[in-house]
Specification:
heterodimer, A: alpha+beta, three-stranded antiparallel β-sheet, 6 strands, B: seven-stranded parallel β-sheet, 35% helix, globular
Amino acid sequence: MHEIAMVEDVLRIVEEVARDNGISRIDQVNVVIGEYLMVKPSLFEFAFMAAREGTRAAGAGLTIETEQVELECPGCHHRYSPRKINYNCPRCGNPNPLITKGKEMFVKSIEGDDNTG
Amino acid sequence: MEIKVMKRVLDRNRDMAARVRDRLGSSNVVMINMISSPGAGKTSLLEHICHLLGDKMRIAVIEGDVATDRDAQRIKKYEVPIVLINTDGGCHLDSNSIDIALGEFDLDNLDVVFVENVGNLVCPSHFDLGETLKLAVVSTTEGDDKPVKYPMLFKEARAVVLNKIDLMQYTNFDHSSFLSGLREVNSPVPLFEVSCRTGEGLEEFMEWVLEEAGN
């Protein structure tokens, strides 16, 4: 259900960007969701479709790109992708790697025009 | 026309969490965000904490509850400052409600604030409250697969409490499978096996709480 809070924030961001760029109708919203967040794209999309009503993105499509988790070992500086849920460094066994990618969710871009029609 | 945006979602929650962290830091207060599924024993654990540590450190409690004040009522008898946040159906607490709740406390006269999050293993993990650490609470009656099913919480937890160990023999909870799952997700995390009903294992856990609270 927290997908609703995320989607509301996505819509707040895209509304702001559209307003600043003179876009009255958003056709497409492109978001990137880090794998670490374990957000189910279908639930996110469902929440988006419900929440977009009454905004400039009311008719917008949504694409969700999943960003894979990338890790860096603070001990031996090995960079690697985890195998499933075990994040331990495969080289030295360090259990506390830094998550360098795949932990964030962000709005990548929007597409639209200033045609109110 | 395509416009590059590259803006992080939930940044406002993150910014407010940073503010909460600053407030706590300047008053030297530790905040512990307790996360579990409904019925795992967060409130029972809090009752023991208030009872056993109430004279060793200055405790305050923020109770996150979907609709009732039942948990808050249970804590009230320990005479610690308490703020109830009803989320009205919401599945998690956010940093803004914590910031408002902290306004009710005299932070300079506190050592630890315990936040009892809404019972849920998924959503609360996504919302940084500005806490010093997350404490995951899980119980034997929920099954042994929780760490591997909800890895985000168990990766971020500074410690894990396994409650209801007195009931283990009556369930199909597989202790070794739980342990190997937890170690796969977070190999160094301290695990405290307790029973809030019989009191077993609580002493060791309380020592950990005191240590984390800086006493």
